[in-house]
Amino acid sequence: MAGSKSNPVASAVILPGQGPQDRLCRTAGAAAHPGASEPHAAGSVGAYSYGASDWPPRGDYSRAGNDYTCAQNHNAYTAEHHDIYRRLCARQSALLPGRACSAFIDALPQLGASDAIPRFEAINERLFKATGWQLVGVPGLIPEVPFFSLLAARKFPVTDWIRTPAEFDYIVEPDVFHDLFGHVPLLFEQRYADHIQAYGEGALKAHALENASEPVPGAVEMLSRLYWYTIEFGLMRDERAGGQLRAYGAGLLSSPGELAHCVQSPMPQRLPLASTADLLRCMGSSYKIDSFQQQYFVIDSFDTLRSLTEPDFRPLYQSLAADLAH
Ligand SMILES: [Fe+2]
Asked: How far does the centroid of ligand 1 lie from the alpha carbon of residue 189, in Å?
């Protein structure tokens, strides 16, 4: 597997000159995890700078445990940190009507006041009661197996640092704003929350298949494409908005530029994600990481997403692997 040296997301997540955007994703799969395939020296997190290479993930990994989680050091946030968060929330919130899905807009207040970076533990009190999920702090991007394992345990990893003022319009890695604002509100939506857990379980299976005695090559990459086109860049026909196109993917919801582009621009293709054939097309589609998406996949409900991704994916991986081999 490629290490961070060959990982394209490091240099290509954001392109200067494209206008303000924040499209950062802790997606499943090495292709979108800078350093994700860096070997983790067991028991040495404290002394090991995770991802240390020519493009190390940003963050202080000496604070992390063996599962890569760490306490949110809320006292370390400065007035400037809180102000950046407040301004990011204000800008993005103003863009949501007519572009973000109804469930997201309804759940956004669950993050609490937007004038300061919230305490994860305060959100957790509400989140655990709502859907059984919890937020856990992480120092930055983490490898795929720990990431999948957290999702499977209904624990969502949230980066605890925030971008600098110079990065207000774009940033290379997910920060606390992307992770909280983009991902967390829909964890209050039961069907979607269940889907994310199932995704984590499925991704662990995919990883095991890749490493089985008769390996299924590319399974994690195929599943990472599904993550990309749904959890990060997914669109839906929002029944509560009269069937209008709305964003539910975190990469869109936290991006001022692409949030408008994804629902309003005539340029991108918008393909249905409603059948197994659509699923195969999605998992067989490589994605753009250096510009706005040229294609989006559109669900008609979170129920559809959940039921579509419920079956065993092994036959799908095998089918795609066979296609890719020819
Ligand atoms: Fe993300």
From this structure: 17
